Amino acid sequence: MPRGTGIPGIPPVDLTGIPAAVWAAGARTLTAGINGKMTAATGNYFMYPAGPTTGTALTTGGFANQYGAWVQMIAATAADIYVVGYLLRVENNAPGTIYMQLDIGVGAGGAEVSIGEGKEGYLTYSAVGVNSYGFAMFPFPIPVAAGARIACRVASNTAGLPSQNCTLLCINQADVVDM
After folding, report:
1. Is 84 in contact with 141 (CB distance < 8 Å)?
2. Fewer CB within 10 Å, N- or C-terminus of the chain?
3. Could you tell me the pTM of the whole model?
4. Confidence band (pLDDT; 50, 70, 90) for 3?
5. Up-side HSE of residue 167: CA atoms within 13 Å toward CB?
6. Per DSSP, what are the bridge partners of residue 169?
């Protein structure tokens, strides 16, 4: 049965036969319940690296718009998790406008596979050494299997930026339920 989206100008969506909200970790696809709503059963969000900390230091590549090396966030997850967001500390090395792009990957060192990216928008700095903290939540959580190694890397439109610090916000898949 078609149901309205609640957004003017967007037509109704046919949700007939859509099963309860679950992520298929292998396929990385989401199927939503009739209302497409999920919630945390326990509210137990956690971070990699665990806080309090400034985050894991990441460096950009040697050239503008080039990713730096993958850096391990955790050697092995204890359970099936979702990465739901990140915090990225951006520090400039010269006045001007920069952006940072984060790439999240899984896999053994040297064999990482990207599973999601995020971007900290264009930030304008008037002085060297000014820090900016960007926080982003993904519109759809990124599934990661138990035992997986998670690593991240960053790129910027400015070559040779100082180390940037990253923290991932996560939740156990078992803690996510239909509303």
Report:
1. yes
2. N
3. 0.74
4. very low
5. 16
6. 47, 85
